[in-house]
Design goal:
Elements lengths: L38 H7 L2 H6 L3 H6 L12 H20 L9 E2 L1 H14 L7 H6 L3 E2 L11 E2 L7 H17 L1 H16 L2 H23 L1 H4 L2 H8 L17 E2 L18 H10 L5 H10 L5 H11 L4 H8 L2 H39 L6 H7 L15 H13 L5
Parallel strand pairs: 1-4
Antiparallel strand pairs: 2-3
Bound molecules: protoporphyrin IX containing FE (HEM).
Length: 409
């Protein structure tokens, strides 16, 4: 666990939270392979989209040998194992869509998955930390960290759109790295009353948040709403607050009672949680509870960083007290850009969920073209809900409005 730097004598630094100066929350140098003993896992994990398509995934997993997790040692090995077991689990549960789900994950998958999850402090379900942060490699190791030179390690159904969805999200994480690097400068500057360095750092943070919005716009170029909604989305869904798995899922060999976990969502990205705590965005009870719960789906060191930012002396009060024009403007600019990012995100959600959901309802009983058929086969349980299980638009608009309330008056 990371050392908490809430003590005013300790300098706040990123590396005590396993956050990299170059890549932020992105896992540096993810492994592509596990030790040979784990080949039976990787053989299946690397074929999940094809095996789901041929409806063979469940039977192959049912026949899989029980492997011990004890030969996994390094953090990177555990992260790849968690990613591989997660995509196998999502494929296993959702292979037949929402009408033929399973009540139990077989022990050959559930037991090692549980053990690996416990060691990482992650839940036994696909998280943002798996599908995005630990799921990349550079085609040319010396080449740039960009769309052309990146590929996924492990895929979910959805072809190029699945790749686009995870990669664009990864590029949003990357765009935020300059902002993350400035967080310690802001915190340490507030502690010692250095108005100029705090103002400069906030100016850089607002630029970085704007770059995140620009990166998010790439979603339109790389992801088809009908493929996202009709094919991919179910594989990100969880077994909590999901009416097609009302009881949750039994992890055989772990516990006889079913367990409930939320599906993967970028609400599990630590970025906006950090900015909210830094700027003093206060969330309303219900949306705040959902966001707080999402922190349990993050690597523990990242969750700790958010927690420690929240315990620092208030930046907002510092800005008010200093009465510096430049500082106040820089703070307001950060809130403006965060608001713009959240507004743009609402736009994306409307295009990728609300519009296809309305079309699905309309098409369900009509004769269908191929796009219509894809959309109308989408799970109805998720029409009004996010994969994380939230009631989408009310939640997102409340969170955006709370951001607006952070402006200095
Ligand atoms: C097609 C693309 C996307 C869709 C359809 C989408 C959808 C959603 C939905 C439905 C939620 C509500 C929570 C839940 O139940 O899961 C949510 C929350 C959230 N999403 Fe996305 N999302 C997309 C891309 C992204 C990307 C690339 C990011 C950036 C890292 C992001 C960041 C967030 C954040 C931070 C929240 C929590 C609410 C907030 O803090 O404003 N999303 N998203």
């Amino acid at each position: 666990m990371a050392a908490a730097s809430t003590d005013s004598k300790t300098t706040f630094s990123l590396d005590s939270y396993h956050v990299s100066e170059e890549l932020g929350f992105i896992l540096p140098e993810p492994l592509e392979e596990l030790p040979p003993y784990y080949q039976p896992w990787m053989d299946i994990a690397l074929q999940v989209p094809e095996l789901v398509h041929s409806q063979e995934l469940r039977s192959l997993i049912n026949k899989m040998p029980l492997l011990s997790s004890q030969f996994l040692q390094k953090h990177q090995e555990l992260r790849l194992a968690h990613l591989a077991l997660s995509v196998m689990t999502m494929g296993y549960v959702w292979q037949e869509g929402e009408n033929d789900t399973v009540e139990m994950l077989p022990h050959t998958l559930a037991v090692p998955y549980w053990e690996v999850s416990q060691r990482l402090g992650l839940p036994p379900i696909l998280t943002h930390a798996d599908a995005v942060l630990a799921n990349w490699k550079k085609k040319d190791p010396e080449g740039p960290f960009d769309m052309e030179n990146l590929e996924l390690l492990v895929n979910l159904p959805g072809g190029d759109c699945a790749r686009g969805f995870f990669m664009v999200t990864l590029l949003v994480e990357l765009a935020a790295v300059p902002a993350l690097r400035r967080i310690p400068i802001v915190i340490n500057g507030v502690r010692c009353g250095d108005t100029d360095s705090v103002a400069k750092a906030l100016e850089d943070i607002s630029q970085s948040i704007q770059d995140m919005t620009e990166a998010l716009k790439l979603m339109h170029a790389y992801v088809e709403p009908s493929v996202f909604y009709g094919i991919m989305r179910i594989y990100l869904s969880g077994w909590k607050d999901n009416s097609c798995m009302p009881k949750g899922l039994v992890y055989e060999g772990v516990q006889t009672e079913p367990m409930e976990y939320s599906g993967g969502s970028a609400a599990q990205s630590s970025l906006l949680h950090c900015f909210d705590e830094l700027l003093g965005v206060r969330h309303e009870k219900k949306s705040g509870a959902f966001l707080t719960r999402m922190r349990d789906y993050m690597p523990p060191a990242h969750k700790q960083m958010i927690q420690d930012i929240s315990l620092q002396p208030s930046l907002r009060i510092f800005v008010q007290q200093q009465a510096s024009e430049r500082l106040s403007q820089a703070f307001q600019q950060c809130v403006t850009r965060l608001l713009a990012l959240r507004s743009y995100h609402i736009n994306i959600v409307s295009r990728f969920i609300t519009v296809p959901a309305a079309r699905a309802r309309q098409l369900r009983n009509q004769s269908q073209d191929s796009e219509g058929e894809m959309i109308s086969r989408a799970p109805t349980a998720l029409e009004e809900r996010g994969t994380g299980g939230s009631g989408i638009m009310t939640f997102l608009k409340t969170v955006r409005d709370q951001t607006r309330d952070t402006f200095l008056t």
